[in-house]
Design goal:
Elements (H helix, E strand, L loop, with lengths): L16 H8 L8 E2 L3 E2 L1 E2 L10 H14 L9 H21 L6 E4 L2 H14 L11 H7 L6 E5 L8 H10 L2 E5 L18 E7 L16 H9 L2 E5 L10 H4 L7 E5 L10 E5 L1 H6 L10 E5 L2 E4 L13 H17 L1 H20 L5 E3 L10 E5 L5 H10 L2 E2 L1 E3 L4 H7 L4 E5 L6 H11 L1 H6 L4
Parallel strand pairs: 3-15, 5-6, 5-7, 7-8, 8-9
Antiparallel strand pairs: 1-2, 4-10, 9-10, 11-12, 13-14, 14-17, 16-17
Helix pairs in contact: 2-10, 3-10, 4-6, 11-14
Amino acid sequence: MTTGGLLEPRTAEGFGGAALARLRADFPILTRTVRGGRPLVYLDSGATSQKPRVVLDAEREFYERHNAAVHRGAHQLAEEATEAYEGARETIAAFLGADAGEVVLTRNGTEGLNLLAYAFSNAAAPGALDGTDPAWADRLRLRPGDEIVVTEMEHHANLVPWQELCRRTGATLRWIGVTDDGYLQDPSTVVGDRTRVVAVTHVSNVLGTLNDLGPRSSVIAAARRVGALVVVDACQSAPHLDITALTAPGSGVDALVLTGHKTLGPSGVGVLWARRGLLEAMPPFLTGGSMIELVRMEGSTWAPPPQKFEAGVPMAAQAVGLAAALDYLTELGMDRVHAHDQALVRHTLDVLAERPWVRVLGPAEPTDRVGAVAFVVDGVHPHDVGQVLDDAGVAVRTGHHCAWPLHRRLGVPASTRASFGVYTTPEEIDAFAAALDRVPQIFGVPA
């Protein structure tokens, strides 16, 4: 796999102009036109990223040369498919700085979070924790009055599963509030002695807020003080940051999820990473073939993790594609990927600041943001703003971005969001700003 010699030249912005042009050539979709021949300006990577050719080729090669059911069959194709699938797991683990035995492959980040949430409710079944390490077993038992803490900036995927878990178990859901400028409020006022889980996003998919989740951060410290499990939604940070610190020993993080389609990889594949002891203690979410150790008519026993959580024939081609995507990001260098993102965020905030009729949501400091800038034009619905941009060939996201409670907290029904990928250029931000200038002309907004 090659990224076209992108290691040089380097600049303070991550990639030099020529290097960025070569990078963009790896993404076939970026050459197409839209809306009557206009060049595509894709600023919706926070919803789904575009895929480099190496990812498309990896999936196609799997289907053309190795397609067979993984972990089944003794023939050569089955052996090759299994080797490719488990090799992908090793690559994903390396990207996370983790052990492959701690990596569960799922359909997406949402499934990973549901897997965790259902493990808590399944733990209440008679015998579900037999033979489990008592320390981990106790952490999985939820009782009425226990508390699960989330934040007010969560994507629905890291909110609704915990709401449902509370409904099933009698636990209470509490949340850390958000300030007017898009930061988390003091978690120590919410995390208490009955808190069993703290689930928090690393980067807000709306505000781009980068939450400090270091071992000494207020969130991690509050959770550690009461022995709560910490679950991190890393779906928005994984494409832009080195996240290996989250999985490191002593980080205070017990589990995290990411999703392939936001990380240059295919749709239909995601990752749940969790500490080995937690995976060994958790009851399975789905049952059936592949996740079993021994099956009798009277009952069954489970394979060790991660296989315990991968019932049925897995998404082998997608896993191979995700591994190719993560290899691509690794070759680019996550430090340079982050520097490139920071330059894009800063430039976007600068051009929007020149337009007083635009109100940016979230942190004003670029270094406190990753990957996205959401905004409103007072008096104009975000869907109308998005339509104006789309007419000019600029693709953005409009709506509540699967974060209704956050928008209610900020007092807006919806927002328009520009979000970035490794292939986004400063010139595309300029094109976005130029297209945005049509909004006051069309809707009579004082400019």
